[in-house]
């Protein structure tokens, strides 16, 4: 971390204290994510950090969402956790054809937290550093109109932006049908510029090769050019840890 970043982190810690909270339990890489998300504005980053702490305390009181609270969403087997990419990022695969818009929005929001927390935790090596990122692959193959969930997509990305700043390394959209273009146009309006810049709609061979290079054949499922078998989120086992989240 360069000197300018060190100064910014120190200033942010002071700003958080002025807001009545503490950064004592969090290391510099965690705070840097909030600073980057707020263009290095220490006051805005401090406010975002405090809001995150408050949300985490109220919404994720156990510091994790147990499987039992999101069982209906898990039963659809639409999320797969594939291990780590070539640069150590957890790889999430979302099979949109297995998704239906949630009838229980609270459970869906808990499911978003559950899957993001579990994915990020899978990259810990003994403890959380604070700058871990994930790669998401949204597979739109064979989707029908019943699978379209504009609200769900917006919720997922808004949670990433508000509560998991700088956790997304890359997001690839595969096999996008023409009718989904209108849906994506609506969703895009709710995404910050920094988020949009991390999203790749895979349309040609070069973009497919980029996907393979970025993820790596070991973690990438066979159907996408890799060698891995799909592993459902609930079947992926993580050694219990007391590390902080997200």
Automatic annotation (TrEMBL):
PROSITE patterns assigned: CRAL_TRIO (PS50191)
Transmembrane stretches, start-end: none
CDD domains reported for this sequence: SEC14
Superkingdom per UniProt: Eukaryota
Domain CRAL-TRIO: 67-232
InterPro entries cross-referenced by the UniProt entry: CRAL-TRIO_dom, CRAL-TRIO_dom_sf, CRAL/TRIO_N_dom, CRAL/TRIO_N_dom_sf
Protein name: Sec14p-like phosphatidylinositol transfer family protein
């Amino acid at each position: 971390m360069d000197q300018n970043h060190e100064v910014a982190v120190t200033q942010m810690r002071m700003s958080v204290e002025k807001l009545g909270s503490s950064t004592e339990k969090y290391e510099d890489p965690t705070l840097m994510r909030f600073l980057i998300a707020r263009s290095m504005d220490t006051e805005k980053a401090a406010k975002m950090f405090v809001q995150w702490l408050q949300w985490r305390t109220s919404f994720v009181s156990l510091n994790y969402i147990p499987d039992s609270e999101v069982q209906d969403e898990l039963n659809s087997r639409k999320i797969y956790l594939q291990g780590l990419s070539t640069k150590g990022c957890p790889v999430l695969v979302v099979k949109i054809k297995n998704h239906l818009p949630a009838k229980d929005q609270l459970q869906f929001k808990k499911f978003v937290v559950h899957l993001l927390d579990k994915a990020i935790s899978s990259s810990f090596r003994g403890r959380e550093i604070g700058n871990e990122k994930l790669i998401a692959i949204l597979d739109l193959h064979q989707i029908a109109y019943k699978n379209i969930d504009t609200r769900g997509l917006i919720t997922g990305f808004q949670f990433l932006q508000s509560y998991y700043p700088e956790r997304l390394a890359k997001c690839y959209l595969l096999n996008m049908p023409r009718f989904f273009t209108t849906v994506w146009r609506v969703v895009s309006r709710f995404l910050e510029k920094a988020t949009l810049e991390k999203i790749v709609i895979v349309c040609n061979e070069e973009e497919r090769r980029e996907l393979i290079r970025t993820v790596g054949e070991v973690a990438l499922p066979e159907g996408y050019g890799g060698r891995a078998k799909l592993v459902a989120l609930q079947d992926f086992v993580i050694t219990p840890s007391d590390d902080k989240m997200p």
